[in-house]
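Supplementary Methods. Inverse-folding protocol.

Structures were first reduced to a discrete structure-token string of length 186. This string, shown here, constituted the complete conditioning input.
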């Protein structure tokens, strides 16, 4: 076997039903890609890059990072855990999400003075809550629809949605970083 050869293989996270662990691995892989895309921002330019927007109404990196955290929390607690009690108790992380997801105009909440480390710490803490919540969940429970007011949803679909949601915003974030760096280099 060639030691330099890269392996592109999906794994299941240990400690979960294999099908659940596979989706959680995909979720974690996406988070790793997001963090890689944010690595190496110069400390002196971090605030300018995180909070830069090319024009009013276009979300900054900081806004999108807060949004990713808020959406992950909301889908976990409102959908995936609806009518289900996880093996270990979990509570909504009020301290991590002090702002509403949207402002009074319906725009994503702007968090203009947070450092990248604070955003990443929030994302890590919320992800730890999500991973704990899925520990001990059976495959039957994972695929059992939760009947909500407007729709039925399974925890399986929630993880699918969160993978897609973060991937879509990761693309915006990486583009915004490139735009901000070009703007600051002018």
């Amino acid at each position: 076997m060639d030691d330099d050869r890269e392996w592109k293989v999906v794994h299941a996270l240990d400690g979960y039903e294999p099908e659940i662990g596979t989706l959680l691995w995909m979720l974690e892989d996406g988070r790793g890609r997001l963090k890689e895309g944010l690595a190496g921002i110069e400390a002196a330019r971090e605030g300018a890059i995180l909070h830069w927007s090319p024009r009013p109404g276009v979300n900054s990196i900081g806004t999108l990072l807060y949004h990713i955290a808020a959406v992950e929390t909301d889908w976990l607690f409102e959908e995936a855990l609806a009518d289900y009690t996880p093996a270990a108790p979990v509570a909504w992380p009020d301290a991590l999400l002090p702002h509403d997801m949207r402002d009074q105009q319906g725009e994503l909440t702007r968090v203009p003075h947070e450092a990248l480390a604070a955003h990443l710490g929030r994302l890590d803490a919320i992800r730890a809550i999500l991973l704990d919540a899925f520990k001990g969940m059976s495959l039957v429970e994972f695929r059992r629809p939760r009947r909500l007011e407007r729709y039925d949803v399974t925890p399986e679909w929630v993880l699918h949605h969160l993978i897609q949601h973060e991937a879509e915003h990761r693309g915006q974030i990486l583009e915004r970083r490139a735009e901000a760096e070009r703007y600051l280099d002018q």
